[in-house]
Amino acid sequence: MLQRAVRLALSLAGVAIITYVAYRPQVPTYATTVGFAYLLLVLIIATTWGFVEAALVSMVATLSFNFFFLPPLGTFTIGDPQNLVAFFSFLMTSLIASRLSARAKRRAQDAIERQKDLERLYTFSRAILLIDGAEPFPKQLIQKLAETFNLIAVVLYDRVSGEFYRAGPEEFAGMDDQLRDAALHSTSFSDPGHQRVITAIRLGAEPIASLALQGARMPDSVLQGIANLIAIGLERARAQNLAHQVEAARESEQLRTTLIDAMAHEFKTPLTSIKAATTSLLSNPEQTAENRTELLKIADEEAEHLHDLIDDAVEMARLDSAQIQLRLEPTDARQLVRDVVASMRGGIDGRPLEISSEEGLPALPVDRRLVMLAVKQVLDNALKYSKPSTPVSIRLHRAADALVIEIVNQGKGIPLAEQKRIFERFYRSPAVKQQIPGSGLGLSIANSVVQAHRGELALTSKPGETTFRMSFPLS
Fold first, then answer.
1. For 126-135, 201-210, 272-281, which range has the lowest pLDDT when averaged over its residues?
2. Order of strands across the sheet that contains 353-357
3. pLDDT higher than threshold 80 for residue 8
4. Could you tell me where the beta strands, DSSP code E, fall in 215-363?
């Protein structure tokens, strides 16, 4: 109101200035010139401020024109019929011109608003494509909507999940039932007094959600555009979730097949040795006591090896369950590493292996069997991807509140582009996939074990040296 009062005052001041300048005796003027000056002022005000101000100026300018410039001067009467025609012509011209100018201005403003709405819709559509998986998709969706259109409050009801998602600086209250009804029966609701609107979100003819908005009124076309974009976004998110579920099921099946194949291969080695020892004993019972003892010792060791393999298979199944239950116990890390090396003596097969450790390392609270499995996987990787003549080093030391186990080999190194993917399940470098046997599971398993202990498995690699660093918190 104050702004309009200022505009009216300035408009009247403009009429007064033109009248004062034109009415002075020392400035000879013609009534026609003054009329055009008034008309120009009316057009300027209509273009700048609108019809109300222009209409008021038209009336005041017409009265001033009559009083000061049409005979008889100083009265509101008109003596000459020609001047009367001129008077009404000026009045109608000024009113029509101000009306047309104000309409043109309003149309220009509408065009600008439509352009802004289109830009907001485009920005919102791009924001939908950039939504990540950090939070639920619908929640991020309405946050982007509230930010893009400067809305006070937004609520999205997802009919499929039955969840409400809210965004904006203020909260809706008591609208849940109406949102459910809109999602079920495709109804709409409007409350202009509170600047609220509820609309159904449809995918085709079927409502899949509903949306409540509070803020500046927007055209129905924009509201429908928002609803369509949200419908597309929700459907896209559901399609992605379904694809992820299918991929997870496929990977789970692949993991199961790979584990069965790997375990079957691993089981054959000790079983073959046990079978060979028992067959030799049965086929030649007259062997010397020394030979019988040696064969029984081989069978016993391989039976123990088979027992360990079965335990490892059970632990791998635990890791695939996505809910790793840790059985923590104080563990001597140096003894744990020595036990891993002893269990892998067949795979090491005379390789140079160096173990170094700081003195006075504290006991490590870990699930011993799982950590042994992780160390075994990393050590097996170091042995597999380095030449048999090069040494492999295992180093143990303390770093702040963590105990660190480093396994270093002198292989060709891992390219930087592949280092980011090395811990992915089933990932194997294309350069070695056909040359070195493997399943692509070992480092993934090790990484899962370390993360389950809230630790970190890190990698640094360059040609001639690759280091895997497992950090386990001591607390």
1. 126-135
2. 353-357, 392-399, 402-409, 465-473, 456-462
3. no
4. 329-331, 353-357
Is-above-0.85 flag for pTM?
no
Distance from C-alpha of 295 to C-alpha of 207, rounded to nearest angstrom = 75
| Cβ neighbours around 454 below 10 Å, total | 12
Among 373, 401, 394, residue whose Cα is nearest residue 469: 394
CA dihedral 112, 118, 124, 130 (to 10 degrees): -110
> How far, in Å, CA of 56 to CA of 8, rounded?
8
Listed in sequence order, the residues at least 6 apart from 196 whose beta carbon sits closer than 8 Å to its beta carbon are 172, 175, 189, 190, 212, 213, 214
Interatomic CA distance for residues 474 and 330, integer angstroms = 10
**Would you state the structure tokens that stand for residue 56, as one six-digit string?**
């008021």
**What's residue 27's pLDDT?**
55
Q: Across residues 158-165, what is the average pLDDT?
A: 84
The string of DSSP codes covering 159-176 is: TTTTEEEEESSS---S-H
Only one residue has tokens 């088979």, namely 306
Q: What does the DSSP 8-state code read for residue 172?
A: -
pLDDT tens, 415-468? 777 777 777 766 666 556 555 655 566 788 888 888 888 899 988 888 888 899
Round to whole Å and give the CA distance between 129 and 224. 19
Read off the pLDDT of residues 269-319 as tens digits, 9 standing for 90 and up. 778 878 887 888 788 777 788 888 887 888 887 787 777 667 666 666 666
Tokens of 138: 């619908």
Q: How confident is the model at residue 395 (pLDDT cuts 50, 70, 90)?
A: very high
The encoded tokens of residue 159 equal 């009919």
Structure tokens, 435:
């040359």
SS3 at position 211: strand
Asked if residues 95 and 53 have their Cβ atoms less than 8 Å apart, the reply is: no
Q: Which domains, from first to last, does the chain contain?
A: 2-112 (no CATH), 132-244 (3.30.450.40), 245-320 (1.10.287.130), 329-473 (3.30.565.10)
User: Taking all residues of the chain, what is their mean pLDDT, rounded to a whole number?
Assistant: 77
- Residue 75 carries which DSSP code? S
Q: How far apart (Å, rounded) are the C-alpha atoms in residues 379 and 245?
A: 33
Whether the Cβ atoms of residue 449 and residue 370 lie closer than 8 Å to each other: yes
d(CA 317, CA 315): 5
- The residue among 331, 398, 406, 405 whose CA lies nearest residue 364 is 331
- Cβ-Cβ contacts under 8 Å for 348 (sequence gap 6 or more): 341, 383
CA distance 475 to 106: 70
Distance (Å, rounded) from C-alpha 467 to C-alpha 416? 14
For 211, the token pair is: 């949306």
Contact (Cβ atoms closer than 8 angstroms) between residue 92 and residue 59? no
